[in-house]
Amino acid sequence: MAEGKKGFFGRLVEGLAKTRANIVSGMDSIFSGFSAIDDDFYEEIEEILIMGDLGIQTTMSIVENLKAKVKEQHIKEPSECKAILMETMKQQMDLGENAYDFENQKSVVLVIGVNGVGKTTSVGKLAGQLKDEGKKVILAAADTFRAAAIEQLTEWSHRAGVEIIAQQEGSDPAAVIYDAIAAAKSRNADVLICDTAGRLHNKKNLMEELKKINRIIDKEYPDAYRETLVVLDGTTGQNALSQARQFMEAAQVTGIILTKLDGTAKGGVAVAIQSELGIPVKYIGIGEKIDDLQKFNAQEFIHALFDMKEREEEKGL
Question: In the chain, which ranges are E strands?
């Protein structure tokens, strides 16, 4: 693991401390306190996972999987269930092989999310990281209705060292996307990242706006690889899950950016999102710096959740 990555893992461990207090301390007392694997044992695990904001559906799936493996492997000791539980949770969060295909071809990335979740900041951080990887990136300031959104994204474009296409506040977002596509094609950009509005309180308008944007992309840039990322605030727990479902009605969502995991007690929602929605968490954010947004790694996340730092370092990961 590179030094920066190891630092990120350490910050992730710290950020998940409250979630860990909800989940892991209780788990440890179950694994050490029970002398037999029985219904009470499984019920205690269910209760703790639900308290950690994994949600009922995800929790039931994890526990059923745990039961099946315990039976299959003829496990008798509760303490032996911890490793199986961790492995089951990792499996719920599998990204699949093609999670980051958009990075390696001409692509348009739509980023949507409600105000306050860290959407524009995430766009800026993602742009900076892609630029550092040698990609030519252009930003489109298509969140034209939120006060200061354009200024905020412009500041991030300067920080990341990438170009931005913007119009005046209140402009038609689809017109901004049209201009940005023209710029991306003429300047041979690798990735066009579009900061788009997410006004869920008026979902009909949001849906129409996203449909219009998608029509523009289909017509003007049909060969581009399409990625649609929804930014969710990790501190909102199950509410984040509800937001994701609503955005899925408005767009073909391909991934989640989960922000503000530093200090939340609801970090378990990262497991629930993938398990219940079938949409992978592709990036997680744990701070304000440009490198505080990282690609999601299920193993790192679960190890941070269970504070397995020493084991990671022993392996030299």
Answer: 107-112, 137-142, 163-165, 191-196, 225-233, 255-259, 281-285, 293-295
3-state secondary structure (DSSP) of residue 294: strand
CATH 1.20.120.140 domain range(s) in the chain:
3-95
Domain covering 3-95, topology: Four Helix Bundle (Hemerythrin (Met), subunit A) (1.20.120)
CB 149 within 8 A of CB 143: yes
Phi-psi region of 148 (alpha: psi -120 to 50; beta: other; left: phi over 0): left
Burial classification of residue 86, based on how many CB atoms lie within 10 Å of its CB (0-12 exposed, 13-18 middle, 19 or more buried): middle
pTM, entire model: 0.87
In the beta sheet, which residues pair with residue 293? 285
Lowest mean pLDDT among 115-124, 224-233, 308-317: 308-317
Beta bridge partners of 141: 195
Phi, psi of 194 (to 5 degrees): -110, 120
CATH 3.40.50.300 placement within the chain: 101-297
**280 close to 96: Cβ distance less than 8 angstroms:** yes
Tell me which architecture the domain covering 101-297 has in CATH: 3-Layer(aba) Sandwich (3.40)
74: Cα separation from own chain's centroid: 36
- Residue-by-residue DSSP string for 149-204: HHHHHHHHHHHHT-EEE---TT--HHHHHHHHHHHHHHTT-SEEEEEE---GGGHH
13 phi, psi to nearest 5 deg: -60, -45
Mean pLDDT of the chain: 86
3-state secondary structure of 257: strand
pLDDT higher at 261 or 179: 179
**176 versus 264: which is more confidently predicted?**
176
DSSP 224: S
**Collapsed DSSP state (helix, strand, coil) of residue 117:** coil
Q: How many other C-beta atoms lie within 10 A of the C-beta of residue 1?
A: 14
Give the pLDDT band of residue 52 (cuts 50, 70, 90): confident
